[in-house]
Every structure is written in structure tokens, then in C-alpha cells.
């Protein structure tokens, strides 16, 4: 069937750069890209006829222009004129169809940006907003979420078991045991999420190669159009592909930023307890990629085949890693304003297992949420009254408890100036039978004032006057680990990690 497309391929390839994927040819010419579906039929897609290619291109255009309207221009016919010459559009016999797109700059795929070292915190936050927005707009489905995951479970178990050369039997046994047990325990959660409208027609293929960064902003494109079944899933399973891909590329901090920002943006639909689904979803995404790589290795030879098998094994063992239970913990980072609590908390979150790290619950954010203000919008003085602060701490601990109940770690970020506030955090860990670490940051007064005065675009309202006021607080007995935070953020982080690694149960109050 593909042979019949050779004249069309030759026509489109003239004066153009050609890129071939598993199911399409893309031709880059000037500021335009033309996508031609291959005339193929696979178990999961059918582009074998002209009508089917046209129908799939139409769906691809409709689906993707919702999130990236500036990229998608329309579906165009390839026609043969009276003289037999081919052209795009016009009168004549239609011999094929192409999707016309705006060509984006070279090295602008998110995968390229990561590889080139251009992935940063701001981009991670923007990515979370893009994905959260797409999920908010996605069409709700009444498909059974347990059946969706059961089909994936069956596919993975059968395929892994049948390829002991790539997926050793002993390790497959561990994967199967972990996967089946995790899925069994999560079935009631998945059912509840389906009833809550969290199974939707999603992107379906949300990895770094299907996100482009233009003028610093991410755009989701190339969503699955050929299979309603593949694209319809729990929204967190859709998110899990991006998180898994970033983690594999070494972007732990970015993945953690996305996790926290996504859950913050979707508070009406998601609570931290939903993180219970992430190990299963991340493992499934990694497992599917392992199968894709294993299948690709069978079509290759020599070093290319070996590389594909290594890739398959890497994904396979990552899947096992995501399923392997990790004991949750509660870490509280306290200290007066300007000691660097938030900088440290963010760094710690990305390193706490399981990946993609802990929930970061910050008092400044919860206070702004309580008053329905934007994060950078200042609050009036009465927003910091004792009764309001007590309510903020209650909200923080409630959210922390929800995450801990789902066996997910939490980092609390607040001043914790009062003894009872510190005791409440420790008691929350005891209620959920998890390890607790309290970190108390200390810095010179001049350094604290300098830091708060230099802040821009931050949720904290603290200034030098606030620091002066806090310096007069009666802090009581501080039995948390006291850490000198007067130096660089890197030095503070190293000190904090030494404390955490040395003894999770330690309550030493010596200054490091």
C-alpha cells in the first residue's frame, strides 16, 4: 500500500526536509510542515485507504487545534491535474491528503529543550498550566476506568512474560506481583475517579516529543486521533506520561514542580490523596514504552538493536522502581522570614522518594487561597491575625494528612514560630505512623532582611519590617534540627540533607 504513495512522497520531498515517523512522513518547507499519513494498517490504527487517511487527518486537526491553534492550518488535498502533475489544492483528481502545519523552530521540541539544558522552573510551571487547562477542557467519558487499566495490565504481563531475553523471568515475577497488587488495591479509587468525571478524552501521548516550546511557552500537539480507546483515560494517567518521560531524562525537579503546580491548579477536582494512583500510572507508562522499544529492537540489527533492547530494559526496571513501595514521611521546614524555607523545601521535595517527589504545602500559598487572592497579590494585615494563621495551619495539616493517607510524602513550609504549631506537625506524622523530620532554619538578621527585600513575584508578603517583628518572637524551645542557613542555598541544602540522611528519628537541636 505504501508503494502507491511513492509519487506523492517524491512530490512533497522536492526542496523539502523529510522526517519519517512510524506512521507518517513530515515534509518541512519554508515556514510550513506537511504531514502525510502512511498507507498502513496496524493493530491499533488503520490508514490503509484514502478515506481513512482523510478522516484521521480531519480528527487530528480538530483535536489538536484546541491546544495549539497557531500550529494547525488545515487539511489539504494532493491533486493530480490534467497534465498529470501533482500539486497541493486546486482542481483535479485527489490522490492523497496532508495536514498543513506551521513549522516550528528547530530544537524547540521539549525533548530538545531538555537535552540542550533549557528546561527551567518557569517552563515547568507553564507546562503544568498547559496540561491542567487541557484536562479541564477535555470531554468527560463514561468508560470504566478499571477496564481501561485491566486491558493495559493484560498487555504488559503477557508481553513481558513472552520475552525473557529482554525481561528476565525473575524480574518479571517481581513486576507482576507488584503491579497486580497495586492495581487490586486501587480499583475502588479508580472507580470513584471515574464517577467524579476524571476519565476523559485526553492527549493520550503526552511525552516530551509531543510538546513544543515557542517563545518560551509550551504547546501540546500531536495528540492521538486514531484511537478513542487509547486517548480515553484517567487524567492523571495522561499526566503520568509527561512526568515519567521527564524523570527518565533526569528532570526530577521539573517533574516535581509540575506535580505540585498541577494539583494546585486542579484543587476542585484533585486532592493530594489522588497521588495514590501515580505509582501504577507511572509504571504503566514506563511499561508500555518498554514494549515499544522491545518491538523496535526486533526490526533493527546490530548496535541499533542492542540500543533498543537496552532502552526497553531501562523502561522495564523504571516501571519496577515506580511500583516498589516507599515509606512516606513528613518533613517540616520552619524558620523566620528570609531564612530560605521555600528554596530549601522545593529542593528537598524533588529528592524524596517516590518519584516525582513530595507535595510542597506552603503557608503563603494556603493563606492566599484562603483569601481568594492571586499568589503575588498582597494581603491586608488582618490576614495575618492569630486566628487566621491557626486556620492556615489547619488547612496545611489537612492537606498533608490526605497525602500521607495515600502513602505520599509531604514537605510543610511555614514559619512555625509557635511551639504548638511545631507540635501539631509532629503529631500529624504520628497519627499517620510516618517518620517526621523538623528542620529549623537560622540566618543572620541582615541576611534575612536582604533576602525578603529582594523578592519579586513571590507569594510571601514578608518585608524587612516583618523580619524585625519576628525577631522579637518568643519561639520557645526548638527541638527541631537547627540549620545555619546564612550561606548559599546549596550549602543549606547539603546541611539539611545530611541531617535527613543521618537519622530520620533524630531530634537534635544543635546548630550545624
Structural descriptors:
512 residues, six-stranded antiparallel beta sheet, 3 domains, Aminoglycoside 3'-phosphotransferase, Chain: A, domain 2, five-stranded parallel beta sheet, alpha/beta, 17 strands, Rossmann fold, 48% helix, 16% strand
Number of domains: 3
Spatial order of the strands forming the largest sheet:
1-2-3-8-6-7
N-end to C-end Cα span: 71 Å
Mean pLDDT equals 95
Structural class: alpha/beta
Largest sheet: 6 strands, antiparallel
Helix-residue proportion: 40-55%
- The third-level CATH topology of the largest domain is Aminoglycoside 3'-phosphotransferase, Chain: A, domain 2
Shape annotation: elongated
DSSP strand tally: 17
Report on this model:
By secondary structure, the protein is of the alpha/beta class. The chain has three domains: 2-102, no CATH class; 110-323, Aminoglycoside phosphotransferase (APH), C-terminal lobe (Aminoglycoside 3'-phosphotransferase, Chain: A, domain 2, Alpha-Beta Complex), CATH 3.90.1200; 329-502, P-loop containing nucleotide triphosphate hydrolases (Rossmann fold, 3-Layer(aba) Sandwich), CATH 3.40.50.300. 48% of the residues lie in helices and 16% in strands. It contains 18 helices and 17 strands. The protein has helices at residues 6-13, 50-64, 110-115, 121-137, 145-161, 169-195, 228-231, 235-248, 252-265, 278-299, 302-323, 341-349, 363-370, 386-405, 419-431, 445-454, 464-470, 489-502; strands at 17-20, 24-29, 32-37, 41-42, 45-46, 72-80, 86-88, 93-102, 199-201, 211-214, 217-220, 232-234, 329-335, 359-362, 410-413, 435-442, 481-484. A six-stranded antiparallel β-sheet has the order 1-2-3-8-6-7. A five-stranded parallel β-sheet has the order 14-15-13-16-17, with helices on both faces. A hairpin with a 5-residue loop joins β6 (72-80) and β7 (86-88). α5 packs antiparallel against α6 (169-195), α8 packs antiparallel against α9 and α14 (386-405) packs parallel to α15. The longest helix has 27 residues, at 169-195. It is elongated and about 90 Å long. The model is unreliable at 505-512 (pLDDT under 50).
